[in-house]
Amino acid sequence: MRAVVWISEDTWEACVDQARLLVPEDAEVTLLHVAPTDVEDLAAHGGARLLGRHPPPPPGPPLRAIAEEEAQALLGEALKRFGRPARTEARRGKIEREVLDACAGADLLVLARDGEARLGPKSLGPRTRFVLDHAPCQVLLVWPEQPPGIDTIPLPPHLR
Amino acid sequence: MSEVVALVVLAACLAAAVARPAWAPDWAVAAGGAALLVAVGILSSSDARSALRQLGPTVGFLAALLVLADGCRRAGLFDALGAGMALGSRGRPGRLLAMVFVAAGLTTAVLSLDATVVLLTPIVFATAARLRMNARPHVYACTHLANSASLLLPVSNLTNLLAFRASGLSFVRFGGLMALPWLVAIGIEWVVLRRSFAGDLQRSAARSVRAVEQPEVPTFALAVVGLTLVGFVLSSLIGIAPVWIATAGAVVMVVRERPAPLEVVRAAEPTFLVFVLALGVVVRAASQHGLSTAVDSILPHGTALPALLLVAVISAAVANLLNNLPATLIILPVTAVAGPGAVLAMLVGVNVGPNLTYVGSLATLLWRRIVHAHDEETDMREFTRLGLLTVPASLVACTVALWLALQVV
Hints:
Helix content of chain B: over 70%
Number of strands of chain A: 5
Radius of gyration of chain B: 21 Å
Strand content of chain B: under 5%
Distance between the termini of chain B: 46 Å
Order of helices and strands of chain A: EHEHHEHEHE
CATH class of chain A: Alpha Beta
Structural class of chain B: mainly alpha
Helix content of chain A: 25-40%
Shape of chain B: globular
Strand content of chain A: 15-25%
Largest sheet of chain B: none
Radius of gyration of chain A: 18 Å
CATH superfamily of chain A: HUPs
Order of helices and strands of chain B: HHHHHHHHHHHHHHHHHHH
Number of domains of chain A: 1
Oligomer: heterodimer
Number of helices of chain B: 19
């Protein structure tokens, strides 16, 4: 069995914990992180949006280097928390596409909800929803903290 | 015929600025275009000189502000802001967003939109990344606030600098009239961004947070910026034009930080200054040959609330089509006749409006789409959605706030 565990800044602990609990010991596990290049691009090259301006790049490490360093460090921490042998993979690009691409040939994707902490469609952000809707394998969907109670389910429209 | 030539030259300047071809730098196209218009007699040399005389002090002011902001960067002001934001966030993305709002709101107001885009935004990205947070809400906040928080002072945006001179307002009165619209614009951004990124922002501090360094406060740079601001406020009382106060601030920063002379010149971005001057001359020619009459026939006159609203909306539309700098140069002479109220309503439009498009204008957007084909599609959709949620609401609310301020201040 091949399993991909999607490690993202906000929810990785829960994913790793549930993967350790529920993914079989003999599974081939990949811990995957994707750095979104669009945010990095917006932050690094905002000056290009100002008509007529050609500002020099600011000194210091380029944002890409910071993003890559933090991604590696995060994957390192995730591997330590997982406590089992696993492969780590750091990708860059459009998050949802990269995650799906990394799932090609996998049997299971472990990912976490990243929206509001109550039952309902808003418990998934747009990128996570895209991945969930298009996943080419089985999916283990994890709550980042304790699952909210059944009482947080939105009321039907006529009772609101 | 003159009309057509003037408009073609204007279009060529904008095309060069948007497409940025290596073989035709925007500043050279604009300068060449301006020279051509004078050479063929479409613009008299005395009119060209008068346009340059009018723009000269504004461009000098801009250069001083660019050098001042660069001095602040050298002194470590933005690094300190990053460290301060990290410390104040206590590991909570929502608190970091609040810090970013304060930092971007003040940086934009005092050191201009350019400082927020070029100097602060990369620091915000790095801060969020080091804190292991999804940087998207924070970077989007910077990008939005660079525009919408640039309403407050004449120094907050090049468009304001241009309008400040034409409006005849004092520095204090300008700020007094724009304070309420500024707060309203920031408030709308806060509500929309908080709601739109509710999921990303709710994570608690329970998870592991890395130790954050104590920021080293660059006292000298802060003092220079503070004193420059005090100087601006007192400028009309002591009878010194604000441009000289900005120059003094810039000189003090240069003397203190001692960058190489070439780096000071680079910080002032001479090619950008040439571009602004030349574009001003080209727009003057186009205005004389029909553009002004056309704008005049579209824009409402008077300073009643409906007229101000229409001025803001039309200005926002032009800024979104072309970019806010040419929009200001084109609309300003017409609104200046109607008085400061109309000029400030135009600023609401050209400053807040560009948040509608990911890259500042439809022209830039179209070009990027041609060049990059499809790789920005989804992200652009998200940015545009945020723009649709904030821009129309801000245009109306800020103009109403401005109208209220005009009745009171």
